[in-house]
Amino acid sequence: MATPAVAGVAALLVEARRETIAGEPGSGSGDLLPSTLKALLLGAADDLGNPGPDYRFGYGRMNAKRAVDFLQTSTVIEDSVSDGETIDWTFEIPRGPRSRTPRS
Amino acid sequence: VNDLDLELLPPSGAARLPYVLDPGNPAAAAVTGEDHRNNVEQVVVASPAAGTWTARVTGADVPVGPAQRFSLVGIDTHAPGAPSPLAVTGVTETTIGLSWTAPDEADARGVLLVRGEAAGSWTPEDGTVYAPGEVVADGVIVIDTTRGTSLTDSGLEPATHYTYRAFAFDRCGNYSSPAEASQATAGGLSAVPLPGAAPGIFALHPARPNPFNPATRLRFDVPAAGPVRLDVYDTAGRLVRSLVDETLPPGSYEETWDGTGMGGEEAASGAYIARFTSPRGVLTTRLVLIR
């Protein structure tokens, strides 16, 4: 019964996206590519089993709230690439302390 | 059919590659390397070096063309540094001034400031947006979410202890570890004027109720700002309790004497003298406490 749950969350992501961009001029429907929804769901999953993807759990257990959080806070690029072509996107990692307290 | 490759290039050093699995050994943990099998690739960098990174997507083999569409999602789970130290810059009876260090991350969006007795153990949840005035836990209230580095918290109770926590947050809703401060408001011997116009003369009104048990109210008027005292003496002339000793702005004031001495001990039944000292002279009124 995992498939209907994932499909439902994908629909929630589409709905959250439409609400987020509603009223922005030129935004069209704002619908994201299926590959973007997939990337958000996999990136937001709670990893299970071996670190990273594995044959037993894939990318882990779907986390709907994190997926919506990421949708609203992440950088999303949708583009296309042809054979042999390279597309670069640069971003800055600022200096600063990296420490954080563990959550209890 | 089409094969795209993803890699992250750090400011210096080797490219970070996505997870790959070995189908010949399915129980093995994922390693990193070039992936020519899957249509999802994920690169994870636990503690990225500062500087300019490049995310690179290459059309390694795109026979079905002319081009392959793709999505690249960049997820920041990296928290900014705490805005410590959180410092107290000023205290009055009803306000506490605070200042803190500006967040260190380039994508920092501001600081979340909370107050409350239990604030010392509360932490925000990543990805959640909090609104000023929101009660986030029992007795913990959001003072503000601000891009500034100082704030004056107002409307506080005099002579009361408050605990504050400040968290820096970034564009992606990651919250820092807390910076903390505790401070008591001024007061204890403090008076707040009653509403209404300033009175015309210095005056001490008769206590109400009188005789009294357990407490009585003493009202006095201050027509012009000046140092005033309100003390309770026993009939032998010994000071029992100081109620007011400060410079007050014009107004009418009411203080309550609860029949206790300086150390909180209950005063005995009997007569007492309330003595109001103003810049224009001394006024007294007689109180009778009945135990």
Structure, explained:
Chain A is α+β, with helices and mostly antiparallel strands and 104 residues long. Chain A contains 3 helices and 2 strands. In chain A, helix 1 packs parallel to helix 3 and helix 2 packs across helix 3. The relative contact order of chain A is 0.14. The N and C termini of chain B lie far apart (95 Å). With 291 residues, chain B is mainly beta. In chain B, the strands form 6 sheets. In chain B, strands 9-10-8-12-13 form a 5-stranded antiparallel β-sheet, with no helix packed on it. The radius of gyration of chain B is 33 Å and the shape is rod-shaped. The interface between A and B is large, with 52 and 60 residues. Strand 1 of chain A pairs antiparallel with strand 5 of chain B, so a sheet runs across the interface.
Question: What's the arrangement of secondary structure elements?
Answer:
The complex is a heterodimer of chains A (104) and B (291).
Chain A: H1 2-21, H2 34-44, H3 64-73, E1 75-82, E2 86-93
Helix pairs in contact in A: 1-3, 2-3
Chain B: E1 3-9, E2 19-20, E3 31-32, E4 51-61, E5 67-74, E6 87-91, E7 96-99, E8 108-116, E9 135-137, E10 140-146, E11 150-153, E12 161-170, E13 179-184, E14 203-204, E15 216-222, E16 226-234, E17 239-248, E18 251-257, E19 270-278, E20 281-289
Antiparallel strand pairs in B: 1-4, 2-3, 6-7, 7-11, 8-10, 8-12, 9-10, 12-13, 14-15, 15-18, 16-17, 16-19, 19-20
Helix content of chain A: 25-40%
Estimated helix fraction of chain B = under 10%
- Tell me the span between the first and last alpha carbons of chain B: 95 Å
N-to-C SSE string of chain B, H for helix and E for strand: EEEEEEEEEEEEEEEEEEEE
